[in-house]
Design a protein that fits this description.
single chain; alpha/beta; TIM Barrel; three-stranded parallel β-sheet; globular
């Protein structure tokens, strides 16, 4: 998959599988390929046809990323228990379950609560191609972006008054500079998605553009 600019890497976090699944037609209609970072892995079985829905999400061309087995604060946990114990408790069990359900070679991780340190970065790079954090987003050229392993992400899910105009200015700047930006929500927000889709020059690509499209 080739990166075309301007591009938004749009991500959705947590375990809102029904809500994500119910927006698949919208994503298809607007040629959006996005990324879904799942957590609370054992809870997926409690969702009606949860694993089947997640497999359908992947089959539609979207990336499945990882948000931790139990949504723990990675930076604090690595500091408290060390890297090996953190990987054994929070990373490997969920990835094993995902693999059993057909989701292999997951390359992309999102920090719960944005809680990260240099030590947690080096720990998680043992297993993942990219690490998503919160805070200010990067607005980068293709050349700059391809070298990134820590991806800055703007929260596009806030519903506060006046937020839409700020988001529009940010996307307009991305389009005008022919750049790449990463943003995230939790549950899809129809009004916000319609606003993003209104930028006809903007491409929406999944994180798998960075790993050959394996997920």
């Amino acid at each position: 998959m080739q990166i075309k600019t301007p591009t938004m890497l749009l991500c959705f976090d947590d375990c809102y599988i029904d809500e994500w699944y119910n927006h698949l037609q919208f994503f298809d209609d607007h040629n959006m390929r996005v990324s879904f970072y799942v957590t609370k892995i054992r809870d997926i079985r409690s969702v009606n046809h949860g694993w089947d829905k997640l497999r359908e999400i992947k089959a539609r061309g979207h990336t499945i990323g990882y948000h931790g087995m139990g949504h723990l604060r990675a930076g604090a946990c690595v500091a408290d228990m060390g890297c090996a114990a953190f990987l054994a408790q929070e990373i490997q069990p969920g990835l094993r379950i995902l693999k059993e359900e057909g989701f292999e070679n997951i390359q992309h991780y999102c920090y719960p609560y944005g809680n990260r340190t240099e030590a947690s970065d080096h720990c998680l790079w043992q297993r993942f191609r990219t690490l998503r954090r919160g805070g200010r987003p990067f607005i980068l050229s293709v050349e700059q972006f391809m070298g990134q392993r820590i991806i800055g992400t703007k929260h596009f899910g806030k519903g506060i008054d006046g937020a839409d105009e700020g988001y529009k200015r940010l996307i307009l700047g991305t389009v005008q500079s022919n750049s790449i930006i990463c943003g995230y929500m939790h549950q899809p927000m129809p009004r916000r998605l319609e606003m993003l889709a209104s930028f006809k020059q903007l491409h929406f690509l999944p994180m798998s553009v960075l790993d050959g499209g394996t997920q």
